[in-house]
Specification:
Blueprint (H helix, E strand, L loop, with lengths): L10 H8 L3 H8 L7 H13 L17 E6 L2 E2 L2 E2 L5 H16 L2 E5 L7 H9 L5 E5 L5 H7 L6 E4 L10 E4 L1 H14 L5 E5 L3 H16 L9 E3 L4 H13 L6 E4 L2 H13 L9 E6 L2 H5 L5 E4 L2 H13 L8 E3 L2 E3 L7
Parallel strand pairs: 1-4, 1-5, 5-6, 6-7, 7-13, 8-9, 8-10, 10-11, 11-12
Antiparallel strand pairs: 2-3, 12-14
Length: 337
Amino acid sequence: MGSSSNNNTTLQDLAQLAGVSISTVSRALNDHPLISARTKQKIWALARDHDYPFRPYMPSAPVGAEGTIVIVTPFMRGRPLPLSHPFFLELLASIGEAARARDCDFTVSHTTPHDYDDLVATTTTSRASGVIFLGQALLHDAFNQLVDSNANFVVWGAQMAGQRYCSIGSDNQLGGRRATAHLARLGRKAILFLGGTDPESMQRKRGYAEALKEAGLEMDPKLVVPVEFELESADAAVSRLLRRHVHFDGIVASSDLIALGAIRALRRAGVSVPGDVSVVGYDDMLLARLSTPALSTIRQDTFEAGRQLVSRILDPSPDPSAERLPTDLIVRESCGG
């Protein structure tokens, strides 16, 4: 407990206690870079112990950190992106590791921006070094507009036409094409696509359509099925197809979680994977390696993604060009070859 609790402590009192000037105390409370970390720590401790009302002046990161990054998740389909999603947990962990390697802190914001005004508020009302947005949702045009505000931000997501801001992600179209082409090479003729309406899934679907055309296969509209970005939605969609006796012998899923939901529905119906239906996912989450059968997938290198996202915030560049991660097909048991 502090030695004073009447909230009458002044800057002069703190200066006398610390044995420094009033201007040094003021600068320390405002996290001025010319004040040493040791002096800041001493003054912050005195301010706390003597009930100085310092909260409005607190730095954006613990004293000694090189900076802090805010992680923001936009709305998807009218609700916040679930942070419990395994892929985004892995991505958050990679961002955290990359930030720690740079002596930087990061925080996950409670905000979920809907529009341009929300983006401006998110990027200008904190003292953070910058903001990482996990996903574009329907905010592509708003992100383009945000560039003119000089906000320091980067987006995990797709590369889109007319893009003025930096995004980090995989070549989704190439990934979708590689997954589909692999199933076609295995002799699969009726390949189902499961994905959402987000920009990344739509690009993966374009790759799927390209690969079918290259393999001389017709794209059947009944085999392009929209699903949510979650296991239960895919499970329900595949179960409906099976009840309606829609024939398919391969599945390209726009995420690993969607692929695992599809496999769950197939196995419950007594359909063999990969004997009857070959399945390829997208992401290469830890769950993909641990599932039974182990899931073939398109790898997104989350470790490298975290490093690039953090680097774009801490080493800002006037070049807004997007960065595409390697798009590798990882063949495991679920596709049978």
